[in-house]
TrEMBL record:
Matching InterPro entries: Acyl_CoA_acyltransferase, GNAT_dom, Rv0428c-like_C, YpeA/RimI_acetyltransf
Statement: the UniProt record of this protein carries the keyword GTP-binding: no
Keywords: Acyltransferase, Transferase
Database matches in Pfam families: Rv0428c_C (PF24553)
Annotated protein name in UniProt: GNAT family N-acetyltransferase
Length: 252
């Protein structure tokens, strides 16, 4: 089902839609994203579409643009980059690979019913959810306003979920539904409550919510080296679709 490049490119577009930057510039088929440095996804070049200009000139222009915004120049590398030789060109220019990540998919047929009932999904962003999200993700006060605006910028149905144990919120995350998919983002559990199956229960709640809003499939992104998360997602039926990584200049 997911084998065609068009299907996978659709997923890549959805990942961009569902984690919005503060601003975007289009440059000859490349999408340049800016969010004051909060997350690589929102502050990088996405070379998704065919180009016409000289690639070396484009890379230099991107470096100048990001430098003028006091940001490192970062390229997100997927199987769909244009031109195809871009990864090698960036390596030759001294860009290093960081954050190898897997995009995983699963069909929403035969979903288990969640057993943990203390979950709440709000379809509007609230201060309470933000407070818990920032606490569990250790988001610094410096980036809170930026991250908040990024979430407000999402233009698709979004479910903001919290999960409680004995009245205390110990996990949260969000799901975004668009074009038949629900994307899962920033699934996080309090370290004191991990290894109890709570993340699995929270994801099941989100997937059922997504299904009720028309989703028939789900995607997520997981860092390749995160063995615990990969075990959880495998248990939930997710399988690898493709991988991506970042090429970063002057990375320390």
């Amino acid at each position: 089902m997911y084998a065609t490049e068009n299907k996978l490119r659709l997923i890549e577009e959805l990942t961009l839609n569902h984690w919005q930057p503060l601003s975007t510039s289009l440059y000859d088929g490349w999408v340049l994203r800016f969010a004051e440095g909060y997350s690589k996804r929102a502050n990088s070049v996405q070379p998704l579409y065919p180009s016409t200009l000289d690639v070396h000139e484009k890379i230099k222009a991107c470096e100048n643009i990001y430098s003028s915004n006091q940001l490192n120049t970062i390229f997100k590398m997927t199987p769909f980059v244009q031109p195809e030789e871009l990864d090698q060109l960036l390596q030759d220019k001294g860009y290093v690979v960081v954050d190898k990540t897997l995009v995983q998919l699963r069909d929403l047929k035969d979903l288990k019913v969640p057993e943990h009932l203390e979950a709440h999904i709000n379809e509007q962003l609230t201060k309470e959810w933000l407070d818990h999200f920032c606490r569990l993700n250790a988001v610094s006060e410096e980036f809170r306003a930026t991250m908040t605006q990024m979430l407000f910028n999402v233009r698709a149905m979004t479910g903001f979920i919290t999960l409680s144990v004995d009245g205390c919120i110990v996990a949260c995350g969000l799901g975004v539904v668009e074009r038949g998919f629900i994307g899962l983002h920033d699934i996080i559990t309090d370290p004191d409550y991990r290894n109890r199956g709570l993340a699995e229960q929270m994801i099941l709640h989100l997937l059922h919510w997504g299904k009720s809003h028309g989703a028939t499939s789900s995607y997520l992104q997981v860092v390749e080296g995160n063995a615990a998360a990969r075990r959880l997602y495998a248990k939930l039926g997710y399988t690898d679709a493709y991988s991506y990584w970042y090429r970063v200049k002057n990375y320390t």
